[in-house]
Amino acid sequence: MTMSSADTHCPYCALQCAMTVIHDGSTTVAGRDFPTNRGGLCAKGWTSAELLASPQRLGMPLTRRPDGTLAETTWDEALDAVAAAFRDTKAAHGADANAIFGGGGLTNEKAYQLGKFARVALGTSRIDYNGRFCMSSAAAASNRAFGMDRGLPFPVTDLDDARTILLLGSNVAATMPPFLAHLAGARANGGLMVVDPRRSATARLTEDGAGTHLQAAPGTDLPLLLGLTHIVIAEGLADRAYIEERTTGFDAVRRSVAAWWPERTSTTTGVPVAQLRETARRLAAGRTYILTGRGVEQHVDGTATATAAINLALVLGLVGREDSGYGTLTGQGNGQGGREHGQKADQLPGYRSIRDPEARRHVAGVWGVDHDDLPDAGIPATALLGELGGPVKTLLVAGSNVVVSAPDVEAVRARLEALDTLIVCDFFLSETAELADIVLPVLQWAEEEGTMTSLEGRVIRRRQALPGPDGARSELWIMAEIARRLGAASTWSTNPAEVFDELARASEGGIADYSGLSHALLDTGIEAYWPYRSESTPRPFAEGFAHADGLARLVPVEAAPPTPTDRGGDLTLVTGRYLQQYQSGTQTRRVSELNGARPEAQLEIHPATASRLGIREGALVAVSNERGTVRARASVTTDIRHDTVFLPFHYAGDECANRLTEARVDPTSAMPEFKRTRVTVALDATVPVARPTAHEPVGVSVAGGPIDDAGRGGALTKEGLHA
Ligand SMILES: Nc1nc2c(c(=O)[nH]1)N[C@H]1C(S)=C(S)[C@@H](COP(=O)(O)OP(=O)(O)OC[C@H]3O[C@@H](n4cnc5c(=O)[nH]c(N)nc54)[C@H](O)[C@@H]3O)O[C@H]1N2
Ligand SMILES: Nc1nc2c(c(=O)[nH]1)N[C@H]1C(S)=C(S)[C@@H](COP(=O)(O)OP(=O)(O)OC[C@H]3O[C@@H](n4cnc5c(=O)[nH]c(N)nc54)[C@H](O)[C@@H]3O)O[C@H]1N2
Ligand code: SF4
Ligand SMILES: [Mo]
């Protein structure tokens, strides 16, 4: 066996930690020095190679037999069946009866090709992706305020020199452990301010003088932000010169926060007045960053909340400065690039609007088709899932496990079952693939070439380190083969570098302009922040914002009173993540070390609430509302508020948190409410078992070494990195 190796990046989250993959029969990874991770990897990164050789890996296409089982078939048969399903569906029900559901983990090349495949090969408007569940509210707010949505409009290393960082609804200690190194400066200054209804691993990093944990009630971030903005203005801490020079709309925002005086904000959020005042003053003291995560965005008022965070940042004069800023922490590996190149219902490559006639002409020109033939905007993910089995008859899923991760999953399952044909591309038989009529096995990260765009808006190369298994194929090849069978217009390259060149041309002149980039240029190791025409743009707002007049928009938003649909039980369920599990768990539940550390869903519940309900540590509990019941083991902890319980969403079956969540969405972004669901909790009398519970670890490693609960090798404690 010859040895091969490649410098690439982690398959999982948007931090895109740099790693070297070495293959000499078996495959191993090593952290590689890079500004975002400085050689560190979390437990998921360290163990990522295990899945390449997993015995559960799909080796051949599968089709459903008349007896209901999935059986192996040849690629020709499988692709013929896919093409026939698309063709028959279109003939019988029209182009929009075919649909595509993509993912933010796909490379830029695959995401681009998927968008083109939907519009050109299928002619359907029905395409959207899981980024709708992830980034859409922050994206909508940023687009409106700045005219551009780049998660972090500055290099992540800028954070190193911050004095104060306000982190709202983000548990980076579990979701991006190596990122913690960038919080060290703020912590040394006592300036890490974490807003979370739980004392999460990240909130614990504020202890011992490192900062402040604002333990606001779930879903009260909007009033909290309005209240902080109120104090900033009332105490004369607003940056008047900046507001005058770089923004419009201040008066309306000033009026909109007038009624959020500190006492009212405190009553609504549960955050003491003194903490509110201290936070506002700190934020105004300079070298300040405001960052948001899913905890504040995955709500029916997520766009308004992200807007309120932006307003606060603008009133303080933070955005577009060298030493301050606002940003959102993109989640999936290519969550940033995945939302720029056309797998979103209303988008064409280059972050262009599909409704813009000029953009349609440009992109149709690159594709060699008539712009009048391009479909209109489609509908967002949750609405699209709602059409399955109704107007939509055939669905292809690439890069999502919707039957675990979408809101109200039992309804989603029923709709998937009502389809004429479900096609799933994956490397494992995910719970969604288990329902499919045709399953197409694809390559994993270390087996393919491509590019990813990290949470900083930096375009990086994913490189092939080893060949894929015999039966698996690249998605570019799969799309090309289906397009050919359908007699589609345009050309369908299977070479990632060529597809990138086409993407670059399609993006030219758009907001996310990649036109100056190519695989060859990226391979020289240049730093490539988009927009990149002839040079990198690490800080796109330094000179001006992306609106025609260069000004940022301050947009007044209101905190709505709780709606009558907030019913279902006396406790609020918030959902989130464990360090060792990733998303729907298709991948990490198959990694022995990760699943060993986190084998099951645990319900975090406060001791007072638990005692009221007769629930002890380790007991099995039933969490219910009108949509369903989830079974989990109780983890009794003072880290959570009395009125709140917490579940991760990584598990399937009766441990699946999304049995409880509701398909209610934000009116602007169409992002679902994942973070606030009314539930009742009761002892599940059927199986009372005691078992020790793991506490949430904070783990990152720079060196490898022995495995512990915190990841491989050293753990990052409150004091810093221990090798
Ligand atoms: N280990 C691991 N890492 C991951 C992922 C994973 O699945 N596992 N997924 C990746 C992806 S796609 C994403 S999007 C990111 C997500 O990364 P995060 O945004 O850090 O993820 P969450 O755990 O969903 O939510 C963060 C915190 O929000 C809190 N929260 C819940 N409700 C509220 C609220 O109303 N207000 C406030 N202020 N906080 C609230 C939760 O208690 C939780 O601690 O992580 C990425 N990294
Ligand atoms: N209750 C609750 N629900 C949530 C959230 C929450 O906080 N709470 N968070 C939401 C968020 S932020 C997100 S991002 C979603 C994520 O949820 P999902 O969209 O389900 O994400 P993954 O589990 O990453 O699913 C990716 C699937 O595609 C496969 N896959 C990975 N890479 C590729 C590839 O390159 N090609 C193909 N074809 N397949 C691939 C994986 O094996 C896996 O089966 O969940 C959302 N759901
Ligand atoms: S934080 Fe962990 S999962 Fe995210 S890129 Fe780094 S090693 Fe991978
Ligand atoms: Mo996400």
From TrEMBL:
UniProt keyword Lyase present: no
InterPro entries in the record = Asp_de-COase-like_dom_sf, MoPterin_dinucl-bd_dom, Mopterin_OxRdtase, Mopterin_OxRdtase_4Fe-4S_dom, Mopterin_OxRdtase_prok_CS, Prok_molybdopt-oxidoreductase
What organism is this sequence from? Microbacterium phycohabitans
Q: Which Gene3D superfamilies match?
A: 2.40.40.20, 3.40.50.740, ADC-like domains, Dimethylsulfoxide Reductase, domain 2
Q: Where is this region: Disordered?
A: 327-354, 700-723
One Pfam family named in its UniProt record: Molybdopterin
The Gly residues compositionally biased stretches are: 328-337
Question: Which keywords does this Swiss-Prot/TrEMBL entry list?
Answer: 4Fe-4S, Iron, Iron-sulfur, Metal-binding
Which residues are in the 4Fe-4S Mo/W bis-MGD-type domain?
3-54
Q: What is this protein called?
A: Molybdopterin oxidoreductase family protein
Q: What PROSITE patterns does the record point to?
A: MOLYBDOPTERIN_PROK_3
